[in-house]
Write the structure tokens for this entry.
Amino acid sequence: MATPMVRDVMTPDPITLPSDASAVDAARAMRDSDIGAVIVLDGDNACGIVTDRDITIRAVAEGEDLGSVKLGSICSKNPTTITPDASIDEALQVMRREDIRRLPVVEGNLPVGIVSLGDVSVERNAGDALADISSAPANN
């Protein structure tokens, strides 16, 4: 059996927003797409990632005007990325080493997907608790 690759489990066509989009724009995109992270772009290139937690910690908790605060000021810049041809084991190693839950998947520096710890867990450990939780439908 072939080793599963990131492309086999990633979410393709990730939601992206320019670095000058607002935190409100990102929050709405997350709500509308039922996701927890948006890739931040400088032109067509991935330059950051912003999560629902980033918005809460770096903007809401600081009393920022969410309509004015730009993603470029609250995102994690220069995110660790992975290619679609990397193995699931490589993705897991990167997530452990960097202590992250989501990895933008890029070809060149162009975002083509996003892979989460839950995606990897479903593939690697079908039947365990995290895999069960990760594969369950969202509770909207």
Q: What stands out?
A: DSSP finds seven helices and seven strands in the chain. Residues 127-136 have pLDDT under 50 and may be disordered. The chain has one domain: 6-135. The beta strands are 11-12, 16-18, 37-42, 45-51, 76-77, 102-107, 110-116.
